[in-house]
Automatic annotation (TrEMBL):
It comes from the Eukaryota. It comes from Effrenium voratum. One of its GO terms (molecular function) is metal ion binding. Gene3D superfamilies: EF-hand. The keyword Metal-binding applies. This is Uncharacterized protein. Keywords: Calcium, Metal-binding, Repeat. Residues 409-453 are annotated as: Disordered.
Length: 674
């Protein structure tokens, strides 16, 4: 009876193992996959109790009773706890774990000692050294107890023989030695040599230099971020693949092999500092600790944003809720990504990168239980993403846009990114009405919808009865065409002129104001018609001669058509700040100074690397900084900015950044203002 129960239990284990094999990826092994699945439920490091073991086997134990699961647990458990590493190896190899590791080690030591003693003879000189012939003869004597495959597998695993010789892995000390042909010293005077000018590189550095673990991880993190998000996920996979015994620990060989595959390089003192900071046992790196240091700590602001993003897709970060991968794919707005909005990336590329990297990381870490994405899986993914995005504002912008995360007030941060903007249309461009046909009933394009007069009885083009006055007066016609600023030809030209200047950035505003001042001979804020034409020709603003005359006539009415008031034109070009942008500018003014902001203070607080033109448009930070400094010096005229002058300056910046999120980056991230 006992034999029948044992045979039935073996069949149940085979059924579970078959389901495990169906889910194993081609690049992984059954043992590795099962160990990662079990570790996901382990509250204590490396061990499972019966309840955790039952939950871990749910995806593979459909139709199997709780008693059978408990019998499997009792078969492999030690003292009420199941060792994950030992169970995974024995369960997938088909050999029941009936003996503990200490007992096997003791048996090996005693049998080897007895075999050598018998071979040497009891009267031989006692020594603890084992010759190769003795070691070989011992394994020859026991090889008959196992099949050829079992024997090779046992020897390879117990002696850790799956590490082949690799010169690129072994010869790491060469990086710590000074290379031949070191640069010469530099003479600083007639009789003095300066020794501190030698460059510090991977091969030229001080021998007594102590590498801090924070600096080492920061350099490695920047090296990975320069490649791509896919490279960051590949790094995680390379290190977990190197952990062939699935104990979350890497020895020196495994660590160097993973670094070589991940294209990471560490000097000898840096490697020592890593092993000291991440080692649980001597000579081994604890893999989760190392990856946590490599990715960096997720700040409270970034974690809160990730929680809001998970809540936006229907999950709850505070409980064990989960969402399906299909929901993530559906809610991921690739078109809203900042680089897609700027035209630098395609939406399909961004979506494919997210789907590939998310699924790859979930497979490596053993996440997505039962095919559902939990908050821990979502958070683990964005810990890797966060390591590739150094700027907090850019990370905030990307996550908010792609997941359509609402603000605290409930409003979506996206500002009609894909809706076509309403353009000003001129009434004169409307198509003429079709030819009139006698007897047809039509309405005039200018007649009110509720006109009591109705349609005229006859439709001669110039004929009208004496008792039928026009339905549109001359004053109404003039008000429709000339007083409607939003739809006048002048507003169209100003909108196009504003866009032409914005494409040049602050340099465009700087240049046009300088040209106005240059041609203002009387210094009264006006320029003549010929000077206005020269300005357009010199700057190439894209305004036709007819449109130049239209603007000149509109802004020279106060001067009786003799000269144009360019200050009025500049005021319309800058435009009014919307309420949200005006509040952001006021907050920045209060953060930078009390009542006034000096030009030097404004320039010292500006960080071009965090400006939107550098984060989103890939502009050189030095060029952006120089452009901003020149604009501050010119518009400040050497005097501090009061609030009105400060607002006018940022009205020009607002005209440059049409997107609200870009302007928010400029007034917050660029000046380190929260």
């Amino acid at each position: 009876m006992a034999f029948g129960m044992k045979d039935g239990l073996n069949q149940i284990e085979e059924a579970i193992l078959d389901k495990v094999q169906q889910r194993v990826h081609s690049r992984s092994t059954e043992e590795t996959f099962l160990a990662k699945q079990l570790r996901h439920y382990a509250l204590e490091e490396g061990y499972l109790n019966l309840q955790q073991f039952s939950r871990a086997l749910v995806p593979f134990a459909a139709g199997i009773g709780e008693k059978d699961i408990a019998a499997i647990f009792e078969r492999y458990a030690e003292g009420g706890m199941l060792p994950i590493r030992q169970f995974s190896a024995e369960f997938t190899s088909g050999v029941p774990g009936t003996r503990p590791a200490d007992e096997v080690l003791q048996e090996f030591a005693e049998t080897l000692k007895d075999h050598i003693a018998y071979r040497r003879g009891q009267r031989s000189y006692p020594t603890h050294l084992v010759a190769w012939e003795e070691f070989e003869d011992y394994f020859k004597s026991i090889c008959g107890c196992f099949s050829e495959g079992e024997f090779c597998s046992i020897v390879e695993k117990v002696w850790d023989l799956n590490k082949a010789k690799d010169a690129s892995v072994e010869q790491r000390t060469a990086l710590a030695r000074p290379a031949a042909g070191a640069p010469l010293k530099v003479r600083t005077g007639l009789h003095h040599w300066q020794t501190n000018t030698l460059p510090t590189t991977m091969t030229h550095h001080k021998i007594d230099e102590i590498s801090k673990i924070e600096d080492v991880m920061k350099r490695a993190r920047a090296q990975i971020a320069r490649r791509s998000l896919r490279a960051a996920v590949d790094v995680v996979q390379h290190f977990y693949t190197a952990d062939d015994d699935v104990d979350d620990q890497l020895d020196q060989y495994e660590f160097r092999q993973a670094c070589r595959k991940a294209q990471l390089s560490f000097r000898e003192p840096e490697e020592v500092s890593i092993f000291e900071a991440c080692a649980e046992t001597k000579g081994k790196v604890h893999l989760p600790t190392f990856l946590k240091l490599l990715h960096g700590e997720l700040s409270a602001e970034r974690r809160a944003l990730v929680e809001r993003a998970f809540a936006a897709v229907g999950g709850n970060p505070q409980d064990n809720s989960a969402v399906s991968p299909g929901v993530l794919k559906e809610r991921f707005v690739a078109k809203a990504h900042p680089l897609v909005a700027r035209g630098q990336l395609q939406p399909g590329f961004v979506l494919a990168e997210f789907l590939d990297t998310f699924s790859q990381l979930a497979h490596v870490l053993g996440g997505c239980e039962n095919g559902m994405v939990s908050f821990s899986d979502f958070l683990a993914y964005y810990e890797v993403v966060s390591s590739t995005v150094e700027n907090d504002s850019l990370f905030d912008l990307i996550v908010q846009r792609v997941w359509d995360v609402p603000k605290d007030g409930g409003e979506s941060p996206r500002r009609a990114l894909h809706a076509p903007r309403e353009t000003c249309t001129s009434p004169w461009r409307d198509a003429r009405p079709p030819p009139h046909s006698h007897g047809a009933v039509t309405t005039s394009a200018y007649a009110a919808a509720d006109s009591p007069k109705g349609a005229p009885e006859h439709y001669r083009r110039f004929g009208r009865g004496q008792d039928q006055p026009s339905a549109i007066t001359r004053g109404e016609l003039a008000s429709v065409v000339f007083n409607d600023k939003a739809h006048s030809p002048v507003s169209e030209v100003i909108a196009r002129l504003r866009k032409s200047i914005a494409l040049r950035g602050l340099k465009g505003w700087n240049a046009i104001v300088k040209h106005f001042h240059f041609y203002d001979y009387k210094k009264n804020g006006t320029i003549m018609r010929l000077d206005w034409q020269r300005l357009n020709k010199t700057m190439g603003l894209g305004v036709s001669p007819e449109e130049q005359n239209l603007l000149f006539q509109d802004f020279s009415q106060r001067k009786k058509g003799i000269s144009m008031d360019y200050n009025q034109l500049l005021e319309l070009l800058r435009g009014e700040l919307p309420e949200e942008r005006a509040n952001a500018v006021a907050h920045l003014f209060q953060a930078l100074g009390d009542g006034a902001v000096s030009p030097d203070q404004l320039k010292s607080r500006f960080d071009a690397r965090s400006a939107p033109q550098c984060l989103l448009r890939r502009k050189d930070p030095r060029q952006a900084e120089q452009e901003f400094f020149e604009a501050v010096d010119f518009f400040s005229e050497g005097k501090p900015f009061d609030f009105d002058k400060f607002s006018e300056f940022f009205q020009m910046i607002s005209a440059v950044h049409e997107d609200d999120d870009e302007f928010r980056l400029h007034v917050s991230s660029a000046f380190d203002v929260k």
